[in-house]
Amino acid sequence: MRRWLALAALAASSASAADYSGPLFDAHLHYNEEAFNGSEGPHPLPDVLGRMKRNGVRAIIANSRPNDGTKSLAQSPETRQAGVTVVPFVRLYRNRADYTNWFRDETIYEMVQAELARGTAAGPYRGLGEFHLYDSANANGPVARKLMALAEEKDLAVLAHVDDTAIDLLMAHTPSKGAKARLIWAHTGIGGAPVARVDQLMAKYPRLVGELSYRPGLTCEGGRLCPEWRQLLLKYPTRFVVGSDTWINQRWQYYDDTMKGYRTWLGELPPDVARRIAWDNGASLFGLKPP
Ligand SMILES: [Zn+2]
C-alpha cells in the first residue's frame, strides 16, 4: 500500500512537472522573403526578434530563401540587443524552383562556394541547408555528393529534410562515410521513420543529430511525450535539438505556441536532459557560450 502511494505521488508530481524555463536554441529557423518582403511583410525584423526574445530563444540556426533574410538577422544591431546569437547556414534555394533541382544543379554549388567565401556579419557560415530530398535516390545527385564532401572537409553542419534511406546515402558521400559528418536531421524523419530505425541510425553515425519539429509520434495526449520517444531521448540525451521551422508565415504567427509546446514536454524530462535538448546540444555543436 505504501509502495502504491509512493508511485501515485510520483505520477502526480510528473503530471504537474513545471515547464522547462531555461534558454532555447532554435535549430531550424527560416526567415524567408515573404516574411519581411522588404519591410512591407507581416514579420519585419523587430517582430521576429520580439518573438524570439519573449520565448527565451537565445540562439538560432538561421537559413532563408534567399540568403538575404539570414544576412539581415546576422548584421542587425537589433539582433544583438535582443540577445540572440545567429548561427548562419547557407540555404541552397534562391527560389522555389531550386527545391526540386538543387542536387544536380552546378550553379547551386557555385552559389554555395560564393556564399561561404563571403560569410556574414555574424561570422562565417557554419552549415549548409536546409535542403529537401523528396525522392531519397536524389541523394546520389552529383551536386548532393559534392556538397556532402565539402561540408565534411570544412566541418560544416548539414540540415537535411530527408527520409532514413537518404541519411545512409548522404553519409556514404562524405570522406569518413558518416563517421565525422555533422548532419542535423530535420524533423528526425518527417515521414515518421520508426523509433527503432532512428535508434539504429543514431548508433551508426556518432555525429547525427535529430531536430524535432513536426516529428510524428513524438507527443501524445495533452502534448506530453510519448513513452517510446521519451526513452529514445533519454538514451541519446546529447543528440537531439528543437526548432521552429518557420517555413511559412503562419509558423511565425504560432511561434509562441511552438516554443510553449517544447517547454511543456521538456519539463517532463530530468532537468539536465531538458537543458541539453533545449540549449546545450545546439550550443556545443557551434561552440556557443552559455547565454
Ligand atoms: Zn524547414
TrEMBL record:
<dbReference type="GO" id="GO:0016787">
    <property type="term" value="F:hydrolase activity"/>
</dbReference>
<feature type="signal peptide">
    <location>
        <begin position="1"/>
        <end position="17"/>
    </location>
</feature>
<dbReference type="InterPro" id="IPR032466">
    <property type="entry name" value="Metal_Hydrolase"/>
</dbReference>
<keyword id="KW-0378">Hydrolase</keyword>
<keyword id="KW-0732">Signal</keyword>
<protein>
    <submittedName>
        <fullName>Amidohydrolase</fullName>
    </submittedName>
</protein>
